[in-house]
Amino acid sequence: MKKKITAPKVYSMKNKEKITMITSYDCPTTKIVESAGVDIILVGDSVGMVMLGYPTTLEVTVDDIVHHAKAVSRCSEYALKVGDMPFMSYQASVEEAVKNAGRIIQQGGMDAVKLEGGENHIDKVKAIINAGIPVMGHVGLTPQSVNLFGGFKIQGKTVESAKQILKDAKLLDETGVFALVLEGIPEELAKIITESVSCPTIGIGAGRYCDGQVLVFHDMLSIPEPCYFKFVKQFENAGEIMRKGVENYVKAVKEHKFPEQNNVTHLSDEILQALKNRGELRCI
Asked: What CATH code would you report for 7-236?
């Protein structure tokens, strides 16, 4: 029987085995990615843009994360399940951070939480860990700071920015995060960080030298259409397959070709005759 993946297990994978992480927000997707052997399932605040139609992740609430996390946790047996802490769920105070992290674990059924930011949120990370909740860090391009960055832009391209991201990574590592997401930074900086911290790094748009990789499920499978971010590779065009299937369905119904004979259920002649005799099926 396959063993459940835990936060300590992920931590121990550094320099031994590449780590795979992928997003999921519902039960069917969870079953697919887990059966494919993914190590970590992330119920990301990307749910806002991917599933809920929001323009950014900033509109996502703790209730949104908990709702989708419940669906994922019901259908996952082996992968480590990580729930994102959305915008303003931890920024205001340590108390709010611990409370909301607890909700994601207790109500959402997650195994750990992920939160964005470095030096400015070390006190929250420490408090959440002290409450017995494993934390995954996230530095570099942090989408919840999109307004501060002036858009979704690569970070760490100046000396000052690179130094701060490296400092943030080291502080989070020292605080006790079990893994660290590096998003939207130059490959060379990601390599330096990976070699400088004891916890594994998981990259998204951070190059080849991280200890693992994460992608959004819908991006990597072109659902509903291809994603053109440079860091995304389309591994299959599932969106086109799904669209073709729906087109075939619409065409079959319009042309009276669905349902077919083998798609319907019939009454026995005996029951049909009995109903006719009782006058209950005069239309037949």
From this structure: 3.20.20.60
